Amino acid sequence: MRQETINEVIKFRDDRNWKQFHNPKDLAISISLEAAELLEVFQWSAEDVRCEDKIDKIKEELADVMIYCIHMADTCGLDLDEIITEKMKRNNQKYPVEKAFGSKEKYTELKEK
User: Fold this and answer.
1) How does DSSP assign 31-94, residue by residue?
2) Averaged pLDDT of the chain
3) Is 71 exposed, middle or buried (0-12, 13-18, 19+ CB in 10 A)?
4) Which residues of 20-55 are buried (b: 16+ CB within 10 A; e: fewer)?
5) Most buried residue, 13, 37, 53, 92, by most Cβ within 10 Å?
6) How far is CA 76 from each of CA 19, 41, 69, 81, 83, rounded to the nearest angstrom?
7) How many other CB atoms are found less than 10 A from the CB of residue 70?
8) What's the predicted TM-score (pTM) here?
């Protein structure tokens, strides 16, 4: 994510003096609620793997999730690039290509091919 985008999100919050309300607990709740709204886009849909006709709502709800994630990282003093890079290193160890390629299994269930 571009630093300009992160700065825009933070500025929006700060211009409204909302940081005072942004503690980790409430931000975690907000992330979960917005993720549930994203999930709601697919509720009761017969074709739950398709999203072409729902893309505008998906974009809106995904943006809400990401905005709260930016606020959580800022509140906790975390660098988004750093924590994502660290997580991807761990994922690469858990899901080596030679075991995980084309598999939907959890890393504890992967077998040698």
Assistant:
1) HHHHHHHHHHTTTT-TTTT--GGGHHHHHHHHHHHHHHHHHHHHHHT--HHHHHHHHHHHHHHH
2) 93
3) buried
4) eeeeeeebeebbeebbeebeebeeeeeeeeeeeeee
5) 13
6) 12, 30, 11, 14, 12
7) 20
8) 0.88
